[in-house]
Amino acid sequence: MTSIDLNADLGESFGQWILGDDDAMLGLVSSANVACGFHAGDPSTLRATTERAATSGVAIGAQVSYPDLRGFGRRFVDIEPSALTDDVLYQVGALEALCRVAGTRVRYVKPHGALYNATRTHTAQARAVVEAVRAYDPALPVLGLPGSELLRVAEEAGLRAVPEFFVDRGYTPEGGLVSRREPGALLDDAGAAADRLVRMLDEGVVRAVDGTDVSVRAESACVHGDSPGAVAMAQQVRDALARAGVEITAFAP
């Protein structure tokens, strides 16, 4: 692989509560998964984030979530599929308005947190998310975990399904993400995380928490903007990709 997209979760500050360094991250990534107000991000934060992303030439994706500000979208919600579809439509539309004012647009959709994890195996919720995207704009790609129900259903519906790799998250032997409540969920060694990404690109595998290798192919790699040392990790990832001759390019320019 000679190119890959590098994305980060941004726009997650709320009022006077600041999370992450969006300005620095926007100088390092090619795509920004921007919160839509349901798990994080107030309207002023989201407007500023979309404006800075547009100025930086960074592609904007709508990071949709359960309505869970208190839990930062990391708690599963057993929501009726039709209501979830409406929630996703609402979030994409809200972010689209701010993008239009900034002279850009929403270019893809990615679930956040517990919704992302749920749509790996929860077919009804995966279909609800896909139905929202298809109804809004069937040309919008959907970003998700390789082998997930979300990507399978997206392909089935004729949408572009984009597999994603997590640079700074631990993997289970089944190819899922280690729960944040368990050891090995987050990687804080930037050099090791960068090397792991290069190995995934070269060999199509990632080392799981039990020491086994899991098959992974991806078109986009995520560095969490809210993780400690996120900027340093993103920079080391960029440097490692440059040394490997891999170009960083948005998958949905």
Automatic annotation (TrEMBL):
Write down the chemical reaction(s) this protein catalyses.
Answer: 5-oxo-L-proline + ATP + 2 H2O = L-glutamate + ADP + phosphate + H(+)
EC numbers, comma separated? 3.5.2.9
User: PANTHER family per the record?
Assistant: 5-OXOPROLINASE SUBUNIT A, UNCHARACTERIZED PROTEIN YBGL-RELATED
Record's Pfam families?
A: LamB_YcsF
Q: What is this protein called?
A: 5-oxoprolinase subunit A
Quaternary structure per UniProt? Forms a complex composed of PxpA, PxpB and PxpC.
This protein's species is Pseudonocardia parietis
Q: What InterPro entries does the record tag this protein with? A: Glyco_hydro/deAcase_b/a-brl, LamB/YcsF/PxpA-like
